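Journal club side-thread
Mid-discussion, someone asked how the predicted structure for our own chain would compare to the paper's figures. Pasting it here so we can look after the session.
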Amino acid sequence: MFDKTVYFDNAATTKTDPRVMEAMLPYFGELFGNASGKYSIGFAARKAVEDARKKAAGLINAEPDEIIFTSGGTESNNMVLGYGRWKTIITSKTEHESVLNPVKACIKNGTAVRIAEPDEKGSIIPDSLLLNGEAIERRELTRAADTLNDSPGLVSVMYVNNETGTMQDIEALAALAHERGFLFHTDAVQAVGHEKMDVKKMGIDLLSASGHKFYGPKGIGFLYIRRGLKLSPLLLGGGQERNLRSGTENVPAIVGLGEACRIAGEEAAENRERERDIGRFLLDRLMNIPGATHNGTGERILNLSFKGINGQSLAIRLDIEGICVSTGSACSSGKDERSHVLTAMGLTPEAADASVRLSIGHYNTMEEAEYAAGRIEALVRELRELGGAVY
């Protein structure tokens, strides 16, 4: 047994980098001013906010005035999708609930929606985005061409799936959307700070990010809005964040997000390779367990099913031994629902219920991976002997 918690749930949240916490501290104390204040500590807070905006923009090759600070991915996604803003939305069945639930609300306001089907690994093939999928009322769509010619429209596809780690070909999807006159949004919460990101090269019009997914504080994120585009605010008030997100700025959290962006810009490439080395090691070991299946294509976020066991039982037993994994999206914790992502990929109910997710971060070590792999191998055997599910 390790003498510390072995944490393999970094897709749920990451540990805040000590350098991020250090950068935040002055803005709880001597530099506590309101960023709208017309005095020295207010000016200092405003400068800190704008410096953080530059760092966030630099991480994705955007311009500072294209960055709006939000509370995180859920708010950013809701700001984009709105409630009746778009005549047509095309998205996929494997999106996060913070996309799918606003889309359901849009339907009630007359938006035509098409939900594209993934393949068995969770990938959205560009052609399938147009040709396949489920047409949902309020306005029935019978042909892809009807969707694509109905402007204004939005295509919204997640960059890296939070449950399986499957990465989409965002550049190709964005190009296809633009070819048909649609704007393109990506929920990049699991990608920003990890994957190389260039919104200009990739043709991204709108992008959502969340600080706590890449070693920043919780409760802070940003929305990239390509220059020239106009969105309506969800919150009305004092007009902060270019009238798009009213409310006194959370300066310490914004500073922390900026520092996380700076660190990611300098260190993400090196960390990415090391994390994937650990992920490949875990995948190789765990796929040697009889009846194991790799759901998706992720190497940093791994989703595996072990035939004949219950994933929740395995996660509970691992927690008792100090190993943190999950059975899907942490944003859905507490719900007794089967993963909509795995179901959309065609997994049987039994296979979906037999799944666990391990997500690697840059504080993980190969020694931890060896320990976790050994315990998973042993516990899968034990659970099968006990009938698969022990709570």
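Post-session note: The domain at 20-264 is CATH 3.40.640.10 (Aspartate Aminotransferase; domain 2).
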